[in-house]
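pinned: reference chain
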Amino acid sequence: MRALCWVGGDGLAVREVPEPRLRNTQDAIVRVSRSATCGADLPLLSPGDAGLGVGDVLGHEFLGEVVEVGPEVRRHRVGDRVVVCSVVSCGRCWYCRRGLFSCCDNGGSTEPTVAEPPWGEPAGGCYGHPRSAGGFAGSHAEYVRVPYADVGAFPVPDAVSDDRAVFASDAAPTGWLGADLGGVGPGDVVAVWGAGAVGQLTALAALLRGAERVIVVDRHDERLRMVERDIGVETLHYGRTDIPAELRERTGGRGPDVCVEAAGAGDGGTEARGFGQRLLGGGRQTGSSLAVREAVHACRKGGTVAVLGAGTGFVEAFPLGAVLHKGLTVRGARQHGQRYIPMLLKLMARDEIRAERLATHRLPLEEGPRGYALFRERADGCVRVVFTPQERAG
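pinned: its structure tokens
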């Protein structure tokens, strides 16, 4: 089958790779109809990043048709249209039973020496990521093996198109997680750093949970216009505004109740570039860590900062004093999609979430390298690229 593979450095190529086979009794094989780019993939393409092997298949957001199931799969049949959560979780461990699916003990690497150095303990797996996240083949392919299919795959309602449903795999549950971590409720003022797909879906989630005001911060004019047009919330361009000062001005001098960093892991220089430059001190910084610092400074006393960026390393010069003296709650997680996806699909079926507008570019899989170049550089107004592996370039 054809798949989009990492070929070293920041290189990508479409190659022929073996088709996946059932390996366990709870597996399913899904014929992919849509897969989407995500900022969490970009650090994997940075020169010197450890973990990927040449020929590894990228991608973790997808939906498609079930073509084969293991003997212990009970909830899916051949022919079902399903969206698959990007996080691989068993559904039975201590963490999964408590709804903490991305903390699953069994979905990621079972090799402690591989999984523990970045995080201290193994965590749930993710498609298209290194062995520390399970080493599962990615979604930019014609077929994908889905472990724990009864836990991670969800039937898509007839009323929800493929272009809409693919965002229920990762972007929409991550956005909902941001609002959930922040405890967003009626009357809250919420600020969101990042106007990519996750940032926009975080803003929408905050509105659906009853927020009184939502303010999205970014540097891309076309994205800010999209936010204003499609979601109807306020925006700030951080290249032209002192963000913490403006947020205090708009909130009676206090600051937002909830601040969400949704700038994305990026590669230290794309969607998140430039956030918080006036706060720079010593130590290494990435775009999302600067956004977190700015969020901490901007949040009102006693408020909550939610961190969604998929960073894996260490952040120096973190403003711990501001967290302590302002009495802030800081929370972070990867998305627990198994908790949110059924609800999100219902909202999509009722047209309350119209995520397909985020698919600014649709390309056949053969154009995967060009699609990632567009996505990485945010060229041509790109928010997300959606690939159609079953369609040939013509």
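why pinned: The two ends are 18 Å apart (CA to CA). The CA atoms of residues 2 and 16 lie 5 Å apart.
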